[in-house]
Each structure stands twice: as C-alpha cells, then as structure tokens.
Amino acid sequence: MPEGRGALSNWSKCKRVAATLFILLFTPVLAGSQSTGASVKTWIEIKAADEAAKALANPKVTAEQRLRVEQIYYRLVRDNPQSVPAQNALAAFLWKNGKAEAAVEHWRIAQGLEPANAETANSLGGAYLRMGLVPEAAEEFLLAVRSERDNPDYHFDLANVEFVLRSDLTAAWKIDSAELLQRALFEFHEASRLAPMDLEYVRAYAETFYGMPNPDWKEAQVAWQHYLELSTDRNFAYLQLARVSLKQHKKAEALSFLDKISDPSYSEVKEKVRKQTEAL
Questions:
Q1: What DSSP state is assigned to residue 211?
Q2: What is the mean pLDDT of residues 223-243?
Q3: pLDDT, tens digit, for every residue of 171-195?
Q4: Interval 53-99: pLDDT, tens
Q5: Phi, psi of 125 (to 5 degrees)
Q6: Element of type H or E holding 115
Q7: Which residues contact 71 (CB under 8 A, 6 or more apart)?
Q8: What is the pLDDT of residue 38?
Q9: What is the C-alpha to C-alpha distance for residues 210 and 217, in angstroms, rounded to an integer?
C-alpha cells in the first residue's frame, strides 16, 4: 500500500500514491510452495525443501550450501516431473535466488501441465512484470483471476497493472483508457470485497476514485467510510471524507468532517479544503 499517511490534496499526489502501490508488484512476493493438488508424498518433499531453503537466509551461507539446497529442489522436480506444485516450488526458489530465466522456464512448464493453475499464472505475471513485459504480465494476472476468483491478491495485482500501466495496455488490449480505469476500479473493489479487513486493499479501492474520469462520489464515500472503520489514522480518513463530500456539494457534511481533524500536520490541506467548501 502507499507509504506514509500525508494528506492528498490533489490528483498529482494521488498518482504518486498509485505509483507507490505499483512498487508492490516489483517486490518478489512469490507464492512459494503453498500449492494445493500435490500428493501427500510430494507435499512432504516440498515442505522439506522449503525448510532446507530457510538456512540460506544466513549471510554466512556458502555457495556450496546454496547449491546443495538448489539440488534438493531439482531432485524434487526430477522425481515428480508432472507435479505443478513441485515445478512452482522450484521456480519460486530459483527466482528468489536470482535465476530469473530458469524460474520462468519452470513456471512455463507448470503452466503447460495445468494451464488454469492460478498460482502459476500469478507468479508468471509478477515475473513478466519485473522483466518489463507488461501485456504478458497483465494476461497472466487476468488468467489468475479467472482461475481463482475468490483470491483477493490476484484481483489486487491485476488492478495495479490495469491502473498504473494502462498506457501500455490500451494498445495491447485495444480498449480506451476510460474502460481500463473502470476495469481497474472493479478489480480493486473485488480485492477489498473479498478481504474487507485488509486496510491496504480498502484504501487502494477508495483512492482509485480520484483517478476516474467520471467518479461515483457516493460509492467513493462508502469506500472511505469503510476505511475510517478500519484505520487508526482517522485524521486521514476524515480528510478524504471531507473531500468526497465537497465533490458532492455537501457543504455542512464536508465542514463536519474537517472539524474532526485534530492532527496539526493536516492543517494546511485542511484549510485549503475548508476554503473550497465555504465557497460553495
């Protein structure tokens, strides 16, 4: 989610927030070995490999020790060549250890074995994105969502790409920016609906309204009200609720929210919004 809790006084700041959201997609948060569908024996072998890999977090680990763990994962795949979870586990290990090409190769093998596997698709989407292959990444995130519609993480990843990199996708998908923004808003909404207690997802959905060409400010108010219910930073939530009230020309309501802001760090933007409200 966006870092910091400073007040957002205009859309340019919101764009920077969106860009910060996008950084999440460049952080290797790979599915690892949480796959379902493996046999009990394969699952035990995957867990054993993952346990061995934990030792590599020690900065004093030697190249020989690292290679030994890598061989455990390769042996896992050799013994279970048709296992998608095994292929995904090896790919995640390789990616984490700087072997991107080999990792992508095994994710592609996994996808060939089970084209609709959501974990594989989402992992490939993250890899393609970090390789600069935006349309390919978006297609994989879309496949992950279609394969596992109840996973909020997959909706969130797709939404980020559709929102932040829409200029890359409008040509590739042959749709206009407004439609892509609408799709991104829907995916952010799905992420927050499926994980209603996840503050990052709730805030991402609420903030996306500021980037829409014709935002539904009533829905935006509902989103920010939900954020208020979850967040400890109530001053930030009150500011956003004041802004969306202002957008709806609800003068008394906007002023009421502004009066609830007590943090002095919000004073400048608070007064700016107050002047705009009083001018109604």
A1: G
A2: 97
A3: 899 999 999 999 999 999 999 999 9
A4: 999 898 898 999 999 999 999 999 999 999 999 999 999 999 999 99
A5: -60, -45
A6: none
A7: none
A8: 59
A9: 9
158, two tokens: 């797709």
* Distance in angstroms (rounded) separating the CA atoms of residues 277 and 157: 36
Cα–Cα distance measured from residue 236 to residue 265, given in angstroms and rounded to the nearest whole number: 10
Q: Tell me the C-alpha distance between 166 and 144, whole Å.
A: 19
| Overall residue count recorded for the chain in this entry | 280
In terms of phi and psi (left: phi > 0; alpha: psi -120 to 50; beta: otherwise), the region of 249 is: left
Confidence band for 35, pLDDT divided at 50, 70 and 90: very low
| CA angle in degrees (0–180, nearest 5) for 243-244-246 | 65
C-alpha to C-alpha distance for 41 and 24, rounded to whole angstroms: 34
Entry pTM: 0.83
In this structure, which amino acid lies at residue 111?
Answer: Q
Q: Which two tokens stand for residue 245?
A: 């009230």
In the chain, the amino acid numbered 252 is A
Tokens for 260, please give them: 């609830």
